[in-house]
Amino acid sequence: MKTAFPPKLFLRFFRWFCHPELRDYIEGDLMELYNERHNDLGKRKADLKFIIDVLLLFRPGIIKPSKQNHSLNNYAMFKSYFKVGWRNLLKQKGYSLINVGGLALGMAVAILIGLWIHDEFSYNKIFKNYDRIALVMQNQVFNGEIETWSSQAMQLGPAIRNDYSNHFEHVVMVRGTFDHKLTFNNNSVRKMGAFMDTEAPEMLSLQMLKGTRSGLKDPYSILLSESSAKAIFGDVDALDKIIKYNDKTEVKVTGIYKDIPYNCDYADLEVILPFQLTVILDNLESRVGWGNSWFRCMVQLKEGADINTASNAIKDVKYKGVMAHGNVNDDIRFKPELFLHPMSKWRLYSDFKNGVSVGGAIKYVWMFGVVGTFVLILACINFMNLSTARSEKRAKEVGIRKTVGSIRSQLISQFFTESLLIAFLAFVFSLLLVQLSLPWFNEVSNKHLTLLLSSPLFWMVCISFTITTGLIAGSYPALYLSSFKPIRVLKGALYSGRSASIPRKVLVVVQFTVSVTLIIGTIIVYKQIQFAQNRPIGYNVNGIISAPIRTEEIKKHFTVFREELLKTGAVKEVNATDSWITETYVTNSGFTWEGKDPNMSEEFVTLRVTPEFGKTVDWQIVEGRDFSRDIASDTLAFIINESAARYMGIEHPVGETMTWLPDNGTYKIVGVVKDLVSQNPYAPVKQMIYILNYKRINYINMKLNPNFSAHEAIAKVESVVKKYDPSNPFEYKFMDEEFANKFKGEKRIAAIAFVVSTLAIIISCLGLLGLSSFVAEQRTKELGIRKILGASVAQLWQLLSKDFIVLVLTSCIIAIPLSFYFMNNWLMQYQYRITISWSIYALSGMMAILITLATVSFQTIRAAIANPVKSLRSE
Amino acid sequence: MKKYQLGEFEEVVMLTVGILYNEAYGVSIKKEIEERLSRKVSVGALQTALKRLEDKGYLKSHEGEATQERAGRPKRYFVITALGKRALEHIRSTREKLWGAIPKIALNPGKFDTAF
């Protein structure tokens, strides 16, 4: 009988997967069956049944174990790996400290930055309608440049609500946020809040503790946050109580909502008042038109509505509105175009240039993300370097293990076990470090971060991140050490020359490139801040306190009020303005003058002042004179700054006249002052006009008498203010502090950059310390012989340090163009900026080399002064 | 008591091994079961059961002759061990106990239908 053959592929498949102990017998059975079927049923059916049999045999009992001896000793081996790894850690405490410490530092930085980024991305997400809320913004053309505003006219809300309800579920006009005075039973408090349309609680998904979300229907109502209800009413039930609002009117508490968490816009919303209330109280209907962009307009898209379609639909609403109201020659010329800015972009993509979104804070998220990753990589590099450097020490162990029967994969898993052990130890330490540094970090970054210990996601991310770190950090030693040939290592012929140390050198160069780049970056950030801070600001804010005016009494009797203050002796000069003197952002347009380009759409920052403004802040008059109380015509006088003179293109503006359209009169320019930096300290000063006005004033500015202590002087001022405004608490700000606040954001970045680059350099130096001690140890005998032959300590030190210096110099050379590229980009956002000079590079290079020398010398000098007798006697 | 663990198919395999005595190897067991119980048995299911029974110590095996129709592969003969015998007996006695405990009426309900 001729033997038939079943399908070869399946037979081979069967032979491949079958447990070797069973293979022959089962194959015999299969063949016997196949032959029988072949004879009875024919080849095709026999083949088919054979295939089915083979496939059905593919099951756990029959398949061979993935590794031989699988169940035998893997557990024991892993136990042994742990034991050996642990003993290795303890045996070399110095190395372990550097390894674990460096890695823990790196991971701590990465975790902190990770938490920060997570916080940034979860901004505003507490709002349930996060995906559907948007802000209506407008692009307007001023002198050929598009400016993007987030503010809108009051008329916009109803226009959108009435005509575009197919796109939007809610439309809410907002005015605020600012503080409001609330009085209940003679107990007054001031609370931050906004005026909002009735649908706002629904849109912001407020959690109502009492009352309902429809509490803003009546114009004379108010919603309180839980904590402000507590501040006003204590433990009394606040619902339906009547509160006196701003001493003007009475409002009823119609609801209490849970405090809004900090990580969102409107976190400071302590009270919400109906928008209709401000319309009534401030007489807005008759006062403001399409040209007054004083408000914000928020919309909530309908379920499933597309934001781009909606954005396109409302593009011309303002244009049409302005046209319909016949105000043709005013706002039409700015070509207003509306668009929607989704809530998800409010925080991180808030910058617009020429009407196009150009990012915003997202660049810091990127920056810190990259920096965090780099610091972590630095720490991993340390680990790799130290392990490979120590490989000589462990080469013999590898040789013996291989001789005794370890296969390469076992050695790989051994080294991975060790690196994972270290990574997990480092992770535990890094959690501790993060916990300890969080209060500081929160203060610097102005956040409320916590370790998200109860979040499974946090643990998943952290643990997978630890494992990844362990695997990356352990990959090089695991793959490199396990490749040793046992015969060569046991013979002691491992010294494979210079090439062995090349990867190590490359890694050190990478480390120092990153560190030096960070150092250069930090120095540039600091220099830029210092530069802006040292900019001559044109006036003196020291010793000036400012207080908001909260009663008409002061405005009405300002002259008497001022004299009374002066009489106390505590203040040297007093004036009043309509903006904070360090934050002048009120702009006006409609000015014409002789020689003005008719196509110019001009705009000036205006500051309404009382005559003593200049004396109070010590401004410097370049031309003309200051305002005077004694010259009655000064109510129709302007003082402009130098920028304004340039802006208008007049060389000697004093004596020129300016007309303020449509009906504000004609003014004479009586003086020109040096620019006062009262806006963005990094930008050129805007063109400004100072106008005398006694009515539209909001803040009193007082120059304190330096002969009094600030405390005494303020007490005296307070007693005078209280006389005019007994019901409000006296609140004031120091203007020098306010001015310093302008640098807060940059200082925050500088502080974080400083800490991160310090950590980066510490981590790199830890690695260097380990490496240098290793090199010194390795060359002990060589040094001993050199010393006997007459080398001096200095020569030996030079010999050992030279290599490292070369590496660091290489890094500096790479870091210079890198940092120039990044920092130049960063500086571009400031108009008033430093130029990056060579001294910065020289300084950072010097610093890097000095730090390196200091680190390395610790080991090299010790090796150089060691007694050669000792080093040569051993063995 | 879970002293002797034996699944239904395993029990069938063991009994068949008993029936075939000395002639029990993969193909013969398969054919015997298919013939007597008229049910399909796959090689995979049978071999898994045999391996498990051997691991439990109910069966032992020895290598047999190789024939041409088996492409030169040896047969593997199975016999029941003493432990296997006890396991079979245990199962049988527990079954019998259960049978004995069933009241007659439960298996012959027809007769008494009218009474209820």
Automatic annotation (TrEMBL), chain A:
It is found in: Cell membrane. It is a multi-pass membrane protein. The chain crosses the membrane at residues 97-117, 364-386, 415-438, 458-481, 506-526, 749-776, 804-823, 835-856. It comes from the Bacteria. Residues 96-316, 562-719 form the MacB-like periplasmic core domain. The keyword Cell membrane applies. The keyword Transmembrane applies. Residues 370-484, 755-868 form the ABC3 transporter permease C-terminal domain. PANTHER family: ABC-TYPE MACROLIDE FAMILY EXPORT SYSTEM PERMEASE COMPONENT 2 (PTHR30572:SF18), MEMBRANE COMPONENT OF TRANSPORTER-RELATED (PTHR30572). NCBIfam families: perm_prefix_2. This is ABC transporter permease. It comes from Chryseosolibacter indicus.
From TrEMBL, chain B:
Residues 22-89 form the Transcription regulator PadR N-terminal domain. It holds the Pfam family PadR. SUPFAM superfamilies: Winged helix' DNA-binding domain (SSF46785). Coiled coil: none annotated. InterPro entries: Metal_resp_DNA-bind_regulator, Tscrpt_reg_PadR_N, WH-like_DNA-bd_sf, WH_DNA-bd_sf. PANTHER family: PADR-FAMILY TRANSCRIPTIONAL REGULATOR, TRANSCRIPTIONAL REGULATOR RV3488. This is PadR family transcriptional regulator. It comes from Chryseosolibacter indicus.
